[in-house]
Design goal:
Helices cover about 40% and strands about 25% of the residues. By secondary structure, the chain is α+β, with helices and mostly antiparallel strands. The chain contains 14 helices and twelve strands. The chain binds thymidine-5'-triphosphate and magnesium ion.
């Protein structure tokens, strides 16, 4: 029997701000773009629970958040504080929480800056796992002054949905025999990978709850979603066998092209890069992956000197356009003095993706779900 826990910090960035700036405590706090008195562009990164009471949410335009905060202020409610965010501090705090979470677990996985999965199977029972989770929550509160929510279930999927079930400061335990009953009444959107577009599509088909999703037969789901339909079918049954691990699959997928003639023609090189990126993206999907975190470009000059440049993101990228954009960004300096001061002609270019993720690995950041690559 597997026992998996999922831990997710509550209103993480905003909670860290409150923790380190006592004057903020108890006040509505919004971390995100500069609201500029309602004229600001950009979005809310996160809001604490006091600000959420005003209707302010992650990913909402900051101008809208500002208007909601203004309306609350005019009603006589506490004024919200808007902060740009101190990402180094958040990473530092996360860097201290992760080892606490890892301690005593058979395996662990850092799923995002404020989320971790713990394999607790060797504890041998859900009661013990629950006690372990309580102790961990208390320890994080003592050491860091922060609260988190945890879910425990027979796999990562159920644990993740459970940790989100009662927030903030929640602990939800779903035993194997309770899985379907727990999932039944929940909206399809709680399933990792189901974002707004998929949700709307399913609603149009009359499918709102996981119980309803489970009643849809597999053939219909694969008809709607292709290969991803099979995943969805399994998820509706609360099934997942994704391992808890920090080890990324070492796999990479790449394509390269040697030009007919060595060239420095930007139009030509960038057009070939786009074609390579498209081919790499196709293969990525063909091999059953949905996303990647690292993009590498390779350039071989006419004199055979070969150089690579890579960039790894914290948040997985899921689209062809994102791959293309990243490849161009890495490639452009080779076309000018930045990486090519002697203006050497280019003989070959390559585009490669690494740190590949499958559907199951996407049980990760909600930031990603907003960008879902659903058909
Ligand atoms: P979440 O765990 O989604 O949000 P949260 O911790 O703020 O709130 P909750 O209590 O609901 O868990 O994300 C963790 C942090 O990641 C969050 O504090 C800010 C950051 N984040 C982004 O940078 N972009 C996003 O789109 C989201 C949703 C979060
Ligand atoms: Mg969180």
């Amino acid at each position: 029997m597997r026992i998996i826990a999922h831990l997710d910090m509550d209103a993480f960035y905003a909670a860290v701000e409150e923790r380190y700036t006592p004057a903020l405590r108890g006040r509505p706090v919004v971390v995100g773009a500069d609201p500029k008195e309602g004229q600001g562009r950009g979005v809310v990164t996160t809001a604490n629970y006091a600000a959420r009471r005003y209707g302010i949410r992650s990913a909402m335009p900051i101008s809208r958040a500002w208007r909601l905060a203004e309306a609350a202020r005019r009603r006589g409610e506490p004024e919200a504080v808007f902060l740009r965010g101190n990402y180094r501090l958040y990473r530092e705090v996360s860097g201290r929480i992760m080892p606490l979470a890892a301690r005593g677990a058979d395996a662990w996985e850092e799923a995002s800056i404020d989320e971790a999965y713990l394999e607790l199977s060797s504890l041998g029972g859900f009661d013990r796992a629950e006690a372990h989770a309580r102790a961990l929550k208390a320890e994080i509160r003592e050491q860091e002054g922060l609260s988190c929510s945890m879910g425990i279930g027979p796999n990562k999927l159920v644990a993740k949905i459970a940790s989100d079930h009662r927030k903030p400061d929640g602990l939800t335990v779903v035993r194997p025999e309770e899985v379907e009953g727990f999932l039944d009444p929940l909206g399809v959107r709680v399933i990792p990978g189901v974002g707004p577009k998929t949700e709307e599509f399913l609603h149009d088909k009359g499918v709102r709850t996981i119980a309803a999703l489970r009643a849809v037969d597999l053939a219909a789901l694969t008809g709607w979603f292709g290969r991803w339909g099979e995943d969805l079918h399994r998820k509706a049954h609360g099934l997942s066998d994704s391992p808890v691990s920090n080890a990324w699959e070492p796999k990479s997928i790449g394509e390269q092209e040697t030009f007919e003639h060595d060239t420095l023609g930007a139009g030509f090189v960038l057009e070939r890069a786009q074609t390579l990126a498209a081919a790499v993206f196709e293969r990525l999907l063909d091999e059953g992956f949905r996303a990647f975190r690292t993009v590498t470009v390779t350039v071989r000059f006419a004199d055979f000197v070969t150089t690579s440049r890579s960039h790894t993101r914290r948040t997985p990228l899921t689209t062809r356009e994102a791959l293309h954009g990243e490849a161009l960004r890495l490639l452009l300096p080779f076309l000018d003095a930045r990486e090519n001061p002697r203006r050497k002609a280019i003989r070959l270019i390559g585009v490669r993706v690494e740190k590949l993720l499958r559907e199951d690995d996407l049980d990760r950041s909600p930031a990603l779900l907003a960008l879902e690559g659903t058909p």
